[in-house]
Amino acid sequence: MKNGYYYIISSLPELNLSDKNLEYDMLSFREYVSELLEEVDFKMLKILYYPFDIPNFINLIKANGAAWDARGNYTREAFDAMLMVPDTLPVFLQQFYDETRPDWEKTSEKELINTATSLFIDWSRTVQNPFLKKWLYFDQNLKNLLIWLNSNKFDMKPNEEVLGENYEAEYLRATNADDLNLHSWDLPFKEALTHFDNPNVALREYLIDQMRWKYLDELEENYAFGIERLMAFVIKLQIINRNIVTTEEAGRERLEQLLQGIRKEYEMPETFN
Questions:
Q1: Which of 18, 21, 134, 174 is the most core-located residue (most Cβ within 10 A)?
Q2: Looking at residue 261, what DSSP letter applies?
Q3: 52 shares its domain with 148
Q4: CA dist., res. 60 & res. 70, Å (int)
């Protein structure tokens, strides 16, 4: 525990999932703490922003002109410089570079993002901070479960969209809709199955985010004024920001975006419209 973080943590506002007006967002908070944290802790915090770096990096190498997400850790110029010396890329992107570089031109952006994300997921299991490691594992398993449920609801194959090589991902890829059994999972996901049946997409996402919030509260109970509390704050900011812009229409749009990547040659059933 870093005693020097007492002031930072004690001065932060208490967050609630239903908050609408926030003093910080993920970007402004990272800027705020960038010069206040020890280097090793700031590097740990930045891991939570890596998922935004992935599409930025793919957009760069595909030269598609897409807008740059400022929540990523690296600017376009920084990535350009790293590509000149690939060993300076984050470890999982180094691996991505080594394994996929010859195929960039002929591979779709979606496939490249999935590959890079899978490498990030697998790399994240080596993270030394127990709090962050558990959170990333929980959140990715939840995402994979929701992808699997959506895919099976519309008779699609989720194999390419269920990411990572952990036990839960392998189980979902090998399981049929009638055979799903979560008893062998280490984490309690049965609640997600109940929420998934809610016809209101926005409400369903809110209830699932309540699951995330509850799990996060349980994780941070054992930490008082260490970097873990700051990482939990960042995660909660992300959850709140997602909920602020969630409406029924926006929720359906996000669901549609999720399904686009896995339906490809499959035709969407009429019941979705």
A1: 134
A2: H
A3: no
A4: 14
Q: Kindly report the pTM of this predicted structure.
A: 0.85
Amino acid identity of 72? G
Answer whether residue 23 is part of any domain: no
- Can you give the residue range of the structural domain that contains 84? 37-124
Which of 67, 91, 124 represents a domain boundary (last residue)?
Answer: 124
247 CB neighbour count, 10 Å cutoff: 10
Cα 201 to Cα 24, 245, 252: the distances in Å are: 27, 13, 6
* Residue-level pLDDT at 187: 67
HSE-CB for 156 with a 13 A CA cutoff: 24
Q: 103 with 4, same domain?
A: no
* Total domains present in the chain: 2
Supply φ then ψ for residue 57, to 5 degrees. Answer: -65, -40
Task: List Cβ neighbours of 32 (8 Å cut-off, separation of 6 or more).
Answer: 24
Written as six digits, the tokens of 222 are 């054992």
More confident residue, 129 or 250: 129
Q: What is the pLDDT of residues 167-218, one digit of tens each?
A: 889 989 988 877 788 777 766 677 777 778 778 888 888 888 999 999 999 9
H-helix or E-strand spanning residue 206: helix 201-220
Residue with token string 């930072």: 8
